[in-house]
Amino acid sequence: MAKIIAVALPKGGVGKTTTAVNLAASLAVAEQRTLLIDMDTFGASGLSLGFTNGTIKAGLYEVFNFVAGIQSAIHKTELSFLDIIPINVQSLHAEERLTRLADNRSMLKNFLRAIVHQYDYIILDCPPVLRGLSTNALTAADSVLMPVKSGHFALDAVDKLFTYLEWIREVANKSLQVEGILITMHEPNTRVTDITMRELQAKYRRHMFRTFIPKNISLGEASFYGKAAIMYKVNSRGSVAYLTLAREIIAHAREE
Amino acid sequence: MAKIIAVALPKGGVGKTTTAVNLAASLAVAEQRTLLIDMDTFGASGLSLGFTNGTIKAGLYEVFNFVAGIQSAIHKTELSFLDIIPINVQSLHAEERLTRLADNRSMLKNFLRAIVHQYDYIILDCPPVLRGLSTNALTAADSVLMPVKSGHFALDAVDKLFTYLEWIREVANKSLQVEGILITMHEPNTRVTDITMRELQAKYRRHMFRTFIPKNISLGEASFYGKAAIMYKVNSRGSVAYLTLAREIIAHAREE
Ligand SMILES: Nc1ncnc2c1ncn2[C@@H]1O[C@H](COP(=O)(O)OP(=O)(O)OP(=O)(O)O)[C@@H](O)[C@H]1O
Ligand SMILES: Nc1ncnc2c1ncn2[C@@H]1O[C@H](COP(=O)(O)OP(=O)(O)OP(=O)(O)O)[C@@H](O)[C@H]1O
Ligand SMILES: [Mg+2]
Ligand SMILES: [Mg+2]
Questions:
Q1: Cβ(B256)–Cβ(B143) under 8 Å?
Q2: Are B127 and B40 in contact (CB under 8 A)?
Q3: Which of B9, B16, B18 to mutate to test the pocket of ligand 2 (most atoms within 8 A of CB)?
Q4: At residue B76, does pLDDT exceed 90?
Q5: Which of A48, A130, A153 lies at the smallest CB-CB distance from B47?
Q6: Rounded to whole angstroms, how far apart are CA atoms A223 and A236?
Q7: Which residues of A touch B220 (CB under 8 A)?
Q8: Which residues of A are less than 8 Å from B133 in CB distance?
Q9: Averaged over B178-201, what is the pLDDT?
Q10: Which residues form the pocket of ligand 1, taking CB atoms under 6 Å from any ligand atom?
Q11: What is the DSSP secondary-structure string of A182-239?
């Protein structure tokens, strides 16, 4: 039975996609059967692993429209233990339609029942708003991983998500846990980082991962080449950090 | 008659809020009567200028709910030529309600008629999705300024916005122009920057601003202190870049 982890924060550009892709790849390297699902109509997770409109047979769009079964939306990647379901939104009209279908917040949860036994982990890459597809993801998930980039809006974004989780637990998913708060693009010894760390540790110390993800140029480069960092530069600081995060998450799952 | 500029891109964390706030402040320093409107329910523009829930009389939320007139939502800032309308969304319920009200894409355009003669520029800070409040902004705007951070998703985000602009011109705002593509958080001589620059210049050269915004730590720090960079460290590279951008935009407006 897979553990379903949603990667979410209602703030843009904090490293949600980078984390979803590289955590999924790291779990696969640790021989955990892993499925990555792109829940953002922008399609960044698919792009990050080299899936462009021409190479996608079917995606979440076709599944939510009942045009294709979920099995046929699963694509193999170059890592044997990593599969992906891209989103496959190719027009404004398709985006509008998928957003409306996602108003039924249990869609994803219902579709995943058919495949949840094929994987050890399912990772959901969420868009930066707490509606529609993000609500679908949080309704289906066992836990939420919150990537946070240091800055003025970090604490507000985390506060907002915790408030939203309380509502989700009430109306749709009472056992939803917090997987953890992950510091991304970490640049130590700056005033911005120091203030953010103080704010987050004062309020959310017990939810913080021990692993930090450093600011590392090869994480950005790897995405251009359609690869997870581990397949682009295995010994880069970014790759090593995501492998460490995967080990921390696997150890935590084993304790439960 | 104010020029209305929407700051938008369907990608998170590219510097939309930082650009909206610091461009508005720079226009004010150049003694242009300027109004900044926060169109993102997250409320980042308001936070960046030190407006917290306690200090807001009324915001866009009250205006769209016909609870307050637009004049009473206008707040003075420490810059005499800069006013702000914060969003003032204080709960999940309020966010949901405002998002639904924004389904009427002409709301903002109609409210702005009453105040458009009081300003030289109105700057709209948009959320990272092309729906709801962003559609309101693009329906009301004269032009769109696109902040772009170098990276794999930059070109896709710009392509997507250009497609959306064509639709907006057809259904809601036929004279909507492109103000320009602004490179933000610029770190020269990296592979990621070189690839992105090549991609953007090949396709959108004539829309690129001459001004680049460098990666500059004081832009992030200023926000923590509730100030535009110009009021925090006037001679920082970030402040100087946004002053230069303001001059470029003023010169462009004078040519029209
Ligand atoms: N640790 C890191 N070091 C350097 N660059 C990074 C790191 N993590 C992410 N990036 C870069 O920062 C940008 C934003 O990251 P990403 O797209 O993963 O954020 P996101 O939260 O998914 O954004 P969105 O809100 O648009 O979905 C990307 O260009 C990415 O390559
Ligand atoms: N030129 C810059 N140099 C350094 N840091 C910057 C720069 N521009 C923006 N930042 C920082 O990057 C982060 C993202 O910027 P910002 O919040 O303005 O982006 P955004 O596009 O408005 O994000 P969202 O999609 O969530 O609305 C912030 O922490 C901000 O302080
Ligand atoms: Mg993303
Ligand atoms: Mg913003």
A1: no
A2: yes
A3: B18
A4: yes
A5: A153
A6: 14
A7: 151-152, 192
A8: none
A9: 97
A10: A 12-18, 40, 44, 127-128, 184-185, 213, 215-216, 219-220, 223, 238; B 11-13, 128, 151
A11: EEESB--SSHHHHHHHHHHHHHHGGGB-S--PBP-HHHHHHHHTTS-HHHH-TTSHHH
For residue B84, how far is the Cα from the chain centroid? 12
Helix/strand/coil (H, E, C) string of A45-81? HHHHCCCCHHHCCCCHHHHHCCCCCHHHHCEECCCCC
On whether the CB atoms of residues B139 and B172 are closer than 8 A, the answer is yes
The secondary element (H helix, E strand) that includes residue A38 is strand A34-38
User: Exposure of B182 by Cβ count < 10 A (0-12 exposed, 13-18 middle, 19+ buried)?
Assistant: buried
pLDDT tens-digit readout, B90-127:
999 999 999 999 999 999 999 999 999 999 999 999 99
The ligand 1 atom at the shortest distance from the C-alpha of residue A217 is 4
Phi first, then psi: what are they for A80, rounded to 5°?
-65, -25
**B138-170 burial, b for 16+ CB within 10 Å, e for fewer?**
bbbbbbbbbbbbbbbbbbbbbebbeebbeebee
| Shortest CA gap B118–chain A (Å) | 31
DSSP state of A11: S
The series of mean pLDDT values per 10 residues for chain A, 256 residues long, is 97 98 98 98 98 94 98 98 98 95 97 98 97 96 98 97 98 98 97 97 98 97 97 97 98 92
**B192-195 long-range Cβ contacts below 8 angstroms, 24+ apart:** B192/A217, B192/A220, B192/A221, B192/A224, B192/B150, B192/B151, B192/B152, B193/B150, B195/A224, B195/B150
State the pLDDT confidence band at B140, using cuts at 50, 70 and 90: very high
Q: Which residues of B100-123 are buried (b: 16+ CB within 10 A; e: fewer)?
A: ebbeebebbbebbeebbeebbbbb
Instruction: Give the distance (Å) from ligand 1 centre to CA of residue A118.
Output: 29
> Do A154 and A200 meet the contact criterion of CB atoms below 8 Å apart?
yes
CA-nearest residue to B150 within chain A is A220
pLDDT bracket for residue B4 (50, 70, 90): very high
| Cβ–Cβ under 8 Å, residues B62 and B53 | no
Distances in Å between the Cα of A56 and the Cα atoms of A43, A68, A88, A175, A248 are: 12, 12, 7, 34, 32
Residue with tokens 């917090």: A178
Give, to the nearest 10 degrees, the angle between helix B154-171 and helix A92-101: 90
d(CA B136, CA A68) in angstroms, rounded, equals 34
> Do A11 and B12 count as a contact with CB atoms less than 8 A apart?
yes
Residue closest by Cα to atom 11 of ligand 2: B220
> Residue B53: is its pLDDT beyond 90?
no
Q: Strand A3-7 relative to strand A143-149: parallel, antiparallel, unpaired? A: parallel
